[in-house]
Amino acid sequence: MNIWLLLLPLLSFALGALVFKLLLYSMFGVSRRKALASMAIQWIREESGLTDGAQVKKLLPLAEQHVDHFLRHKLTVAMPMVAMFIGDKTIAQFKSVFMEEMDELLPVLEAPLLGRPILAMSLERIFNRIYKSLSIRVILIGGGLGLGIGALQLFILYFGHFLS
Question: Which of 15, 27, 104, 123 could form a disulfide with 37 if both were Cys (CB 3.0 to 4.6 A apart)?
């Protein structure tokens, strides 16, 4: 047997790893990862209901509870002097003014929430991490398959004369 035939499994390992790496890159290249991130953001928007604005309006009662708690408890602790002059009627007026402001502020806040460049970047980072972890696994799988095929070829070449 020629000693150079022992390189056959190693070359098959390298070729299998390269082919699988190229396949992974063609499926999930840089532009594909960005497209996947934008598709994921669109899916999140549709599933969460942030596209219509009605879902965001459902947050108003929760915000009203927090404003009421702030005016009744936290403000009196932080500024006891002001608490002496504020009664229930004044708190109700403050709360109505705050809630009107929240009503005007929600549409302004909705645009950045729906654009979410920060979410796009974080999803892109997540896809990059997944790609890197997949890349190592795919290289090992491709290399392992190549090594197995190379070993099979070596076996056939070495023991082929016994089969005929």
Answer: 123
